């Protein structure tokens, strides 16, 4: 149980679990939300935060990051992150999972994703049940696609039995090879190794078929093409336990961003054509995409200041996750309630943690935000351990003013 003083957040516009926004006060005690509403008042000894009419929301739950980077997460309003198994020593054994699960304390929740296979090689299954007992909230294939269909089927069957979701990377490795770009005009002009966008749809088609056979839940971390999204719609229409995620780069940028060999726009999977970018936005609007995650992967100059084909993929996305998603709200693609379903509620549900929604009994992971506050992304001033963002010097709107984990203050109001 939390040992710090109870928390009262007053004068806020609270985003309730049912999607409504209403003025009121929220009170948390022992790490959990205990009261919400217009008639709630602070008690003697409470830590009181005046929201001054700002939006009070759940802390963001970031599904699939590659590094625990607390300053960046706190800046971005993220209170929980699911850590991908792709680490210097892969999260493929219980002791490493247990260590990762404890690594965020006391001011951050780390939810490790157990490696699906030993050393993430896509061959022998890892000790999944033991990793679950050590704290793994789901199982992930990592940055790689499991090419052997028998191995993938066994993985899905085993995880179905354990009640765990499989988080999959959707690119057929036999097609993509060492490609760093999507086949098309831009890759041709730049002379970059490329692969057709259909590699994603092929991978999704096989994995959906295997998940249906196994009766398993599967989440595709990044679905970035029209073909892949159409397959997701069809699978959902059949009632399968499939969900899809995406990172802001894929609805904000097309492969034009890699012109002039901009390695900060080298992502995995690679950026797609403009038609696919628009398809991602449509899929967010119609509910095909369930999660927006940062894919936070801070990379220093030794990884990025290289020829494009030799550079490492990835972006420092934690600090820009909220404001780039707020673009979708301002553009009328989604409303505020849907935004926080994508950023918090659904990721928390997939991980099986009592967070992501503001309701009595939930963990008091809370953010006070100004969704319209302007600021400029500056890679040289980011809180992340490296500022490898494709949105450098871009004006954005949306800042976290205060952040609380289990009712404990993490961030105070910014100037």
Number of E-type strands: 18
Q: Average the pLDDT over all residues and give the rounded result.
A: 96
DSSP helix fraction: 25-40%
Shape: globular
Q: Please summarize the sheet with the most strands.
A: 8 strands, mixed
Radius of gyration (Å): 21 Å
Note the beta-strand portion. 15-25%
* Tally of individual helices: 13
Structural class determined from secondary elements: alpha/beta
Q: Low-confidence stretches at least 5 residues in length (pLDDT < 50)?
A: none
The first-to-last residue Cα distance is: 33 Å
Name a few traits of the molecule:
single chain; globular; eight-stranded mixed sheet; 415 residues; alpha/beta; eight-stranded parallel sheet; 30% helix; 23% strand
Report on this model:
- This protein has helices spanning about 70-75, 95-100, 130-135, 150-160, 175, 185-190, 200-215, 225-235, 250, 275-285, 300-305, 320-330, 335-350; strands spanning about 5-15, 20-30, 30-35, 45-50, 55-60, 60-65, 80-85, 110-115, 140, 165-170, 180, 195, 220, 240-245, 290, 365-375, 395-405, 410.
- The strands form 3 sheets. Strands 1, 2, 3, 4, 5, 16, 17 and 18 form an 8-stranded mixed sheet that branches.
- Helix 7 (about 200-215) runs parallel beside helix 8 (about 225-235).
- It has 13 helices and 18 strands.
- The radius of gyration is 21 Å and the shape is globular.
- It is of the alpha/beta class.
- Strand 6, helix 1 and strand 7 form a beta-alpha-beta unit.
């Amino acid at each position: 149980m939390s040992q710090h003083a109870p928390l009262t957040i007053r004068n806020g516009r609270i985003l309730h679990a049912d999607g409504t926004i209403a003025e009121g006060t929220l009170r948390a005690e022992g790490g959990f939300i205990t009261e919400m509403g217009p008639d709630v008042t602070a008690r003697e000894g409470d830590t009181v935060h005046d929201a001054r009419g700002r939006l009070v929301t759940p802390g963001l739950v970031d599904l699939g990051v590659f590094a625990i980077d607390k300053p960046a997460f706190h800046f971005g309003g993220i209170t929980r992150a699911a850590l991908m198994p792709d680490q210097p020593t892969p999260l493929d054994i219980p002791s490493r999972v247990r260590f990762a699960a404890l690594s965020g304390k006391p001011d951050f929740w780390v939810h490790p994703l157990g490696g699906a296979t030993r050393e993430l090689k896509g061959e022998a299954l890892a000790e999944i049940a033991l990793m679950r007992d050590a704290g793994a909230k789901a199982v992930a294939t990592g940055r790689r696609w499991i090419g052997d269909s028998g191995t993938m089927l066994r993985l899905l069957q085993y995880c179905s039995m354990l009640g765990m979701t499989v988080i999959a990377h959707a690119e057929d490795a036999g097609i993509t090879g060492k490609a760093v770009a999507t086949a098309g005009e831009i890759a041709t002009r730049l002379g970059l190794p490329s692969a057709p966008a259909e590699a994603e749809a092929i991978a999704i088609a096989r994995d959906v078929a295997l998940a249906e056979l196994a009766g398993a839940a599967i989440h595709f971390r990044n679905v970035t093409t029209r073909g892949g999204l159409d397959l997701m719609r069809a699978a959902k229409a059949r009632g399968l336990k499939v969900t899809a995620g995406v990172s802001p780069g894929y609805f904000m940028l097309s492969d034009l961003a890699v012109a002039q060999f901009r390695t900060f726009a080298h992502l995995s999977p690679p950026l797609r054509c403009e038609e696919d970018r628009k398809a991602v936005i449509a899929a967010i609007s119609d509910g095909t995409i369930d999660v927006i995650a940062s894919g936070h992967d801070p990379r220093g100059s030794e990884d990025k200041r290289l020829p494009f084909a030799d550079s490492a993929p990835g972006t420092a996305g934690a600090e820009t996750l909220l404001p780039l998603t707020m673009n979708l709200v301002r553009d009328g693609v989604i409303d505020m309630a849907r935004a926080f379903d994508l950023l918090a509620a659904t990721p928390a549900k997939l991980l099986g943690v009592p967070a992501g929604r503001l309701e009595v009994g939930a963990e008091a992971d809370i953010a006070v935000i100004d969704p319209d506050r302007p600021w400029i992304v500056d890679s040289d001033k980011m809180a992340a351990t490296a500022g490898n963002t494709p949105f450098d010097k871009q004006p954005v709107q949306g800042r976290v003013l205060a952040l609380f984990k289990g009712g404990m203050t993490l961030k105070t109001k910014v100037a």
